[in-house]
Amino acid sequence: xxxxxxxxxxxxxxxxxxxxxxxxxxxxxxxxxxxxxxxxxxxxxxxxxxxxxxxxxxxxxxxxxxxxxxxxxxxxxxxxxxxxxxxxxxxxxxxxxxxxxxxxxxxxxxxxxxxxxxxxxxxxxxxxxxxxxxxxxxxxxxxxxxxxxxxxxxxxxxxxxxxxxxxxxxxxxxxxxxxxxxxxxxxxxxxxxxxxxxxxxxxxxxxxxxxxxxxxxxxxxxxxxxxxxxxxxxxxxxxxxxxxxxxxxxxxxxxxxxxxxxxxxxxxxxxxxxxxxxxxxxxxxxxxxxxxxxxxxxxxxxxxxxxxxxxxxxxxxxxxxxxxxxxxxxxxxxxxxxxxxxxxxxxxxxxxxxxxxxxxxxxxxxxxxxxxxxxxxxxxxxxxxxxxxxxxxxxxxxxxxxxxxxxxxxxxxxxxxxxxxxxxxxxxxxxxxxxxxxxxxxxxxxxxxxxxxxxxxxxxxxxxxxxxxxxxxxxxxxxxxxxxxxxxxxxxxxxxxxxxxxxxxxxxxxxxxxxxxxxxxxxxxxxxxxxxxxx
Length: 535
What we know:
Helix content: 25-40%
Strand order of the largest sheet: 4-6-5-9-11-10-15-16-14-12-13
Oligomer: single chain
CATH class: Alpha Beta
Radius of gyration: 22 Å
CATH topology: Amidase signature (AS) enzymes
C-alpha cells in the first residue's frame, strides 16, 4: 500500500500483525510555527507530558495531531526502516478518541495532566477494545471482557490507550520475542537484545511511538528494557499497583509499572495507576501508606542536598568484564556526592547476594495457578481455558516447553517444602536489606542495575546481567539512564528503597536526572518532517 507523507511517497508492505490502514488517514501537517514573546520549541522525541500540554494550551498542537505524528513514526520505523517490531495492535479508533478528547478539553477542561496522552500497553495487560493475547498465537485476535484495573484508571484520567506492545510471550523470557509478533529489536543496535520481557513498551517510548508505557515484571522485566532503552523505569512496591486483568507468572512477585523518558513523567503516570483494588488483595498493603498528593509534588532539582544514600556493593560484580560499567556507575555516584548528598560506601549484606538469587526464585512454580486464574477473569470466549489446554494446542513458542513442563508439574504449593523455603528466602532478604538501610540511616541504596549492557539477539538478558533484587523482595526500584558504554549501548543506575518509599525514590532520582542528563536517543529512528516546531 502507499501513503502520502509531506513531500514524499512511502510504500509500505501489507502489515502482518495489525491493520495499519484502519487507523491511518491522511496525516495532518503539524501546526505552523508562531512568533511571540518567549518562543518555545516543541520536539516530539523529547517532549514531556508537560511540554505536550503546553503546546496544546497554546493552540499549536491537538491530541489528534499528536496521535497522527506517532502513527507516522510507527509506519516509518516499526514495520519499515529498522523494522523494530515493537507494536502488535493499534486501537482502531485512536484518532477518533483523540479528537473526542480535544473536544472535551475545549468544552470541559482536562480530566487530569494525562488527558490526551497516548500510552503503549504491554500485551499481557488487558484492554477490552484492542486484541489482547499476551503475545501468544492461540489468543490472537481475541478480546478480554474488561480492562485491567490500571488501564481503567488511566482511561478515567483521560489517557489514550493507544496500542498493544510486543513482549516475551506470557512474560516468560528476557529477549522480547513472541509467537504472535516475533522479535522486537534494539534501536541502538539491531543485533542486540532490546530487554525483556517488556520490550515493546520500552522500545516504543524510547523511539517516539507513544508518550508513556505500561510495563510489568516478574524478575527485571520493567527495569531491563528501561535500562536497554535509556529510559526511566519504575518497579513499584509490591501492592502499590493492581494486577487484576494482567497475565502474571507469579502471584507473589509480579508487578505493574511504568516506562517514561523522564522521572517527572514516570511519577505522574504512577500517580494515576496506584491504589487499592479488591480484585488484587495484595494492594491492601498500600492502605494507609499513600498520600493524596501526586508523586510529582515533591520533585526538586535540589532533592539530593543532604540526602543519605548507600552504595550497595553486593551488586557491583567483581569479574573483569563488569568493570567498565562499574566505572561508569562510580562516576555517577561521585556526581551524586557533588550534589551535596552523603553516600555511605561499603554497604553489604555480607553474603554472596548474586549467588543467592537462584534460591529465591519460585515464579515458575506459581505460573499454572496464576495463568488459570487470569483466564477465568478473561471470560468464556477465550480459545483456551487453562494452561493445560494451551500446551495441548501447541500454539506457543517451543522454547518455553521447559517452563510449561515445570509449571504443570506443580500440583499444589501448600506443602511443597522447596517452594516454601524459597518464599522464606525472599522474606529473609527483604528484612536484611531494609535492616541495612536502617543501620546506615540511608534513604535508598544505589548500584548498577546491570553490569553489562544489552547482549546479542538470541541471548537472554539474564545470567551475568541478572538483578531481580527489587522483584524478589517486593521493594520499589527506579532505574535512570547513566550514559552509554564503549559500544554506545545504554546503562542505568538503580535506586532501591523501603516499602512504599516511592516519593523519596522519585525525589532522589529526579535530582540525579536533572544533574546528569544521561539519556541518549538512538540514531536509527531520527526525526520525521514536522516533529519539531517553534511557537
